[in-house]
Known about the structure:
By secondary structure, the protein is an alpha/beta fold. The chain has helices at residues 27-36, 39-51, 63-74, 97-100, 105-112, 124-127, 132-145, 156-166, 193-205, 223-230, 246-257, and strands at 2-3, 6-7, 11-13, 56-59, 80-85, 119-122, 148-152, 174-178, 209-213, 238-241. The strands form two sheets. It has an eight-stranded parallel beta sheet with strand order 3-10-9-8-7-6-5-4. Helix 9 (193-205) links the parallel strand 8 (174-178) and strand 9. The model has no long low-confidence stretch (mean pLDDT 95).
Amino acid sequence: MEYKDKKIPQTILGYGPFMAELYYGHRSRLYLDDLYNNPQNACDVIVEAYNQGVRAINLVNNPNLLKAYDLAVDAGCEMKVIATIGKSDVDYLNPNYDVAKEVDWEGDIELFSQYDCPLMIVDEFIVDGYDWRLNSKILNRINDTGALSGLVTAFPSKTSDLLLSSIDMDLFDFYMIPYNSLSYMMDISAFNASKRKEFVDKVKKLDKKIIATRILAAGVLKPKEAFAFYKNVDFVDAICMGVAKVSEAQEDFELLKKY
């Protein structure tokens, strides 16, 4: 995808498994040992994703994750970095948004300005704290670097309702939201056809480039189920999905090409 003279690959490798995010439940412990504490294993997954044609990776400022990526670069991976700015140690299952606001987001912007980073997006714990002055400040700082900017939310329905009346929409171009057929990890209790249309219309009204995440519903959905659902999705411009093993990277991204 080419946008404002920047090239943004439409398939982005997510960082969730590499960071052993708690929303993976019991698998988080496995990912902690296999991936987070073993950057070489994470590197091997990144390299396989690259071999399958993936040309972008979502990164946060974390030494283990960045080490894995550096190892992949040394192995020949040339990927665009989609940087999440302001990632904190906030507990995903019981977030403290005040703590999230104290993260060194300026340091993140400075760090990722040194990468091949066409897009920086503000972390969901900052966005969903709804401190619009802070969000605007971060977006402005990103824009000053020459990178494109965007917002991430874990509450795509509520946040989408608030955006138009809360922030200067010209400050950002991209919007990353969870979206899957189960409405898993979305703030929508039912996701029948009418509710889905209502949600999609709401997001389309924002007129932003949409990056969908959690497309596999944190592993609840099989890749074939998830990809089949996306065949009929017309408002998403890119997807971000994580894989936890070399074999998963090979199988999932090979399958994705068929859709």
